[in-house]
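Priority: low. Protein: 3-oxoadipate enol-lactonase. Input follows.
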Amino acid sequence: MTAVSVHRVVTGREDGPVVVLSNSLGSTMAMWDANLEDLESHFRVVRYDTRGHGGSPVPEGPYDIDDVVDDVVALLDDLGVERAHFVGLSLGGMTGMRLAAREPDRVDRLVLLCTGAHLEPSSAWHDRAGLVRSDGTNAVAEAVVARWFTPALLASDPDLKKSSEAMVAATPAEGYASCCEVIASMDLRHDLPSISAATLAIAGADDPATPPPHLAEIAEHVLDGHLLVVPDAAHLANAQQPGTINPAIIEHLTRERP
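Result:
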């Protein structure tokens, strides 16, 4: 499949190192709002919407992991960026792992949040794709957001629950379903030992979608991996605990090389 020109926004320090932010399934670049100000003070920040999401094109599916990676390579080429840090959550983290394994010269350092190298069973992802194609993304919005944040946070912040469910429901059905199929067909476990980029794997302690063992597996099997488990955080840990996660990302991306 041909790469698509994804919707992107570039902010932050014009003279800073480039960091690319890659969103989760069912979200847009707005999922990084709580992280943006801190990152912009250190980096040239490139946010984009994964194909089929937000303002990006919605090619007819199915897609695979290399399709979404091709889009990132095209984005970097379009911006004239030879090498960048990459920060991805969930589907964005899967994109980062495959990018770092397949195109090692394009990735400097890697931050992987709330993701996994292989998410079983694949039948569950095909089932979700089928449901969304038949009934739309509104059919899964409530269940998806219930995994994004801890129950206590959702109970205390009804506006967050409402806006997050609206974000999922606004995702084009074909884009969401086709990205479910990316996850269904993806197995990056064999890629992990070839990832040479220094990698920080961040898990939400309360994440039901990709619990900490998924991130521990990544940190253990890449060449230079470190694990951070963040308390009181579910799947969108970056949004729930930016006070912990923002400094960890900045420290990982800016520390002196050994």
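The first strand starts at residue 8 and ends at 12. The domain at 8-118+187-254 is CATH 3.40.50.1820 (Rossmann fold).
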